[in-house]
Amino acid sequence: MLSDYISPGDKLELSALQSLLTGEAGKEKRVYKSKLYDIVSEDEIKLVMPVENGKLILLSVGVEYDLCFYSKSGNLYQCSARVTERYKSNNVYLVTMELTSNLRKFQRREYYRLNCVLDMKCCLITEEQYEQLYQEADASGLDLTLKDGVIVDISGGGVRFVSREQFEKEAKVLFMFSLRIEGNPRQFVVTGKIISSSEIEGKGGRFENRVQFLDMEARDREGIIRYIFEEERKIRRREKY
Known about the structure:
By secondary structure, the protein is α+β, with helices and mostly antiparallel strands. It contains three helices and 15 strands.
């Protein structure tokens, strides 16, 4: 239950999810401070409307925000939520929000990882090929032999995948995969750097690889994060029934 982790009066910070998805280098995301006013249900909460420099910040209905709660237990918890209503009650400006992801203990890293099973294809690329991709953003002109693999978790910052090939640390790879976002399939062609590659115990000939994305376009990162939030919503719905 939400009340096991957060409670009315807890302080929190929130920032528009869209700004997190499309954040551009050099642009600072807007973070507002507020506090939890009430827990209506497992999917709905009320917050005090944030104030900045003495000015009320009117959160727009329909917009999703990333919330980070500072609980009285000293732990940090995070979720995303959408504004459904804003109003004034007993001289207090309030905003009602619907949770769109599970409440989770805050991970002190840039992106949340989603466990999954996604088919993908990948291959090693040379520094020259990487530079060509970076400059032209087109892999069609490269002579590449792609091999099958399976992504087992994904985030806006990278993936973990299983393959029949072991890679050297720091090696650059190109990989392709498809995600269904808002009901439509979308193909991704991205590059990354191998963080680690090790054989899976008991499964000879299979290797687990951790990859960090390199020079990813904001649109691609936004799509991956959108996919993760959509999958989280599906998990929440299944858990409710």
